[in-house]
Amino acid sequence: MFELDVRSRLPVYEQLVEKFKQLIISEVLKADEQLPSVRVLAKQLTINPNTIQKAYRELERQGFIYSVKGKGSFAAPAIKSVSSEKLDRLTDELKKLAAEIMYLGMPKEDICEILSEIEQMVKGGDGVDTD
Amino acid sequence: MFELDVRSRLPVYEQLVEKFKQLIISEVLKADEQLPSVRVLAKQLTINPNTIQKAYRELERQGFIYSVKGKGSFAAPAIKSVSSEKLDRLTDELKKLAAEIMYLGMPKEDICEILSEIEQMVKGGDGVDTD
Amino acid sequence: MFELDVRSRLPVYEQLVEKFKQLIISEVLKADEQLPSVRVLAKQLTINPNTIQKAYRELERQGFIYSVKGKGSFAAPAIKSVSSEKLDRLTDELKKLAAEIMYLGMPKEDICEILSEIEQMVKGGDGVDTD
Amino acid sequence: MFELDVRSRLPVYEQLVEKFKQLIISEVLKADEQLPSVRVLAKQLTINPNTIQKAYRELERQGFIYSVKGKGSFAAPAIKSVSSEKLDRLTDELKKLAAEIMYLGMPKEDICEILSEIEQMVKGGDGVDTD
DNA sequence: GTGGTCTAGACCACC
DNA sequence: GTGGTCTAGACCACG
After folding, report:
1. In terms of Cα–Cα distance, which of B76, B73, B75 is closest to B41?
2. How buried is D5 (Cβ within 10 angstroms: 0-12 exposed, 13-18 middle, 19+ buried)?
3. Is there a contact between B95 and A118 if contact means CB atoms under 8 Å apart?
4. pLDDT tens-digit profile of D28-53?
5. In the structure, how far is the CA atom of residue B39 from the C1' atom of nucleotide E3, in angstroms?
6. What would the DSSP string read from start to end of chain D?
7. How many C-beta atoms lie closer than 10 Å to residue C1's C-beta?
8. Are D25 and C103 in contact (CB under 8 A)?
9. Interchain pair B114, A98: CB under 8 A
10. What nucleotide is nearest B42 when CA is compared to C1'?
11. Residue nearest to nucleotide F15 (CA to C1')
């Protein structure tokens, strides 16, 4: 299900965070859908439960999932009120990244094209390949 | 001149790398223009010369500056041949970032507008030799 | 285990890089085999951990090892895609070296013989998984 | 005449040493032919005379040129007796280099082919492209 | 325990 | 003066 790379310089728990973020953003994980339990996922991925726990905690902190004691963790339904601070931080990062990419020779038009593809994915998240 | 955050999760030397990258990309630092010396910058920022060294070394590795023993460090003039691997890595990162931003509600059009601004900035350093 | 020459013009950390490169190329260090930890090796060689760190960092950059925080450093399993630029640089260096050696009187045949020995050594680590 | 790269991590004087070595090895500079004077060459290359001096001193130390007080510097006619130590050092370096090149996938045959080209150059050093 | 970052201050090579 | 290397020892993040 997940491809974790223990060799990566990125900590394992952050890789998990990224994976789940993408699943939720692309609506492969629908709103209020339950995530696998910490213990089950830890066994599946043969990694320490603490690592899963840490990832879930981070996802909750960022508002992508919510946890219910005794029930489990669930994908958050939508974004209530995005702190403009977070959006600012993200767009700022995007600016830097886009600047470097353009500096390396890629024209703005190509980047816009990429954005169009992403737009489809984010909006049209139909559960086609949920596996 | 620089705003460094020593408490940041991002290492100081990486913050420096980012700052200089931006200065070079936006051509505030022109090609072959000399950067502040390791020792001088260390004193200015009240951080250790080794940390500056590490940042400069990384910038050199990424092709943004070149260093000459006994002379100084200088902004690299242009990009010779970007490894497509690097561009792929960057665009991939951009995709994830853009997806999250759109998920948080910002329409594609707004992002494209941002890109236009950046395009001006990157190209902005018109080809006139100010030296 | 290692013979380091602190008086050498070659920095200690580069000597370490060379040593490990050879161990990995000759498959004395098998793929995914763990290298000695930074601290342990530093004690063994009675040099500063930072110097080992620098060597490991360079080896990672060159693709010969990979490091995992909290786990250790390991020999990289194989070469994915060598940048042709690197190979060009290496063969260019070899050309100069071979020219000088021939100039000093060694015939081409002798050099080819040496190459045969090396071929054995490099391939020598037959594909049997000793792990 | 010379292409010096002040940006190179290689010191300028070593670049000079390499250039002259190649000229002498390929017999573009014939035996007992005079090299340009320190001052003249320094002006031509717009670098410090001390740097030229250092290069010539190193070339003399390695036996590629000899200097006569009040006359100038000249290409050494041939190799009298190569210290086997030097040849050992060079072949050792070549072994490492060849091992890395083979490790990166280039077959021995390709390397031998390269050697044949070099053999022609070293033996047949006709002054065709002395520029 | 591991690797990674940082500081304080020393010495070297280069030009 | 410049960049580059190294040491001594500290602290942090990761698993």
Report:
1. B73
2. exposed
3. yes
4. 998 999 999 998 899 888 888 889 99
5. 28
6. -----TTSSS-HHHHHHHHHHHHHHTTSS-TTPBPPPHHHHHHHHTS-HHHHHHHHHHHHHTTSEEEETTTEEEE--S-S---HHHHHHHHHHHHHHHHHHHHTT--HHHHHHHHHHHHHHHHT--STT--
7. 7
8. yes
9. yes
10. E7
11. C70
Handedness of CA A27, A31, A33, A35 (dihedral sign): positive
| Chain D residues near residue C120 by CB distance under 8 angstroms | none
Report which residue type is found at C90.
Answer: L
A34 forms beta bridges with A74
The SS3 call for residue B23 is helix
Nucleic chain E contacts, protein chain B, residues 94-123, CB cut-off 7 A = none
Protein residue at shortest CA distance from C1' of F6: C51
The token pair at C2 is: 């290692």
Closest-approach residue (CA) in chain C for A8: C68
What would the pLDDT profile of C59-115 be if each residue is shown by its tens digit?
999 999 999 988 899 999 877 667 788 899 999 999 999 999 998 888 999 999 999
Chain B interface, Cβ < 8 Å to D: 66-69, 71, 74
Distance set, CA B37 to CA A121, B3, B72 (Å): 47, 18, 6
